[in-house]
Write a structure and sequence with these properties.
Length: 198
């Protein structure tokens, strides 16, 4: 039977490195963030209507969504943040269900799902196994800021909005640490995969 495995961890912990390694080794991986990016980059009328209703008409200009403005608003308004997340989670769940249906006869014996906010949204019950990557906050911050995806203040707010590593460890089935080199991380990943696919 195919195992449904959830991958999670805080921002900058190494989820992308892990999913790339899995895909390279012919495992099927569903990435929540990619689904969300697609929703924003190729917005359907329903999503545009939702954004205008939830935020304002200025958020969308000629089908282009002002993501930085949305980020600024949601980090200062918990109610709007929850409304947006609820909408996106529904869409991601639909995509995940289609992915499982399409790949349930996967010969590798496992389907992987990269879900950054898996614990924050109490989604453990959706997976047979939850695999969590843990890395020190300082290391995670260095990685994220190096990629220049976020500013320090935004990163601080993201980390604050996510659950603690001690909570992640408590709720995970398998924990992989990623505080050293990429080589060390891959070695730990291989050990975890052997355990997972027994």
């Amino acid at each position: 039977m195919t195992k449904i495995i959830g991958i999670t961890g805080g921002i900058g912990c190494g989820k992308t490195t892990l999913t790339e390694y899995l895909k390279k080794n012919d495992f099927m991986v569903h990435e929540s963030d990619k689904v969300v990016s697609q929703i924003y980059n190729k917005p359907k009328k329903k999503f545009i209507f939702f954004l205008k209703k939830t935020f304002s008409n200025e958020i969308v200009n000629h089908n282009k969504i002002n993501k930085s403005k949305i980020a600024e608003i949601i980090f200062n308004n918990t109610a709007i943040k929850k409304t947006l997340e609820k909408h996106l989670h529904k869409e991601v769940k639909k995509s995940r269900d289609v992915f499982i249906k399409k790949n349930h006869k996967n010969t590798k014996g496992a389907l992987f799902f990269d879900v950054p906010l898996l614990f924050e949204n109490n989604m453990e019950k959706n997976f047979d196994v939850v695999l969590c990557i843990i890395a020190k906050k300082k290391i995670r911050a260095e990685r994220v800021l190096k990629n220049k995806k976020f500013t320090k203040p935004i990163l601080k707010k993201i980390i604050k909005s996510q659950i603690s590593d001690s909570e992640r460890k408590r709720r995970s089935d398998i924990v992989i640490y990623n505080n050293k080199t990429k080589k060390d991380f891959i070695f730990s990943t291989d050990k975890a995969l052997i355990e997972l696919l027994k």
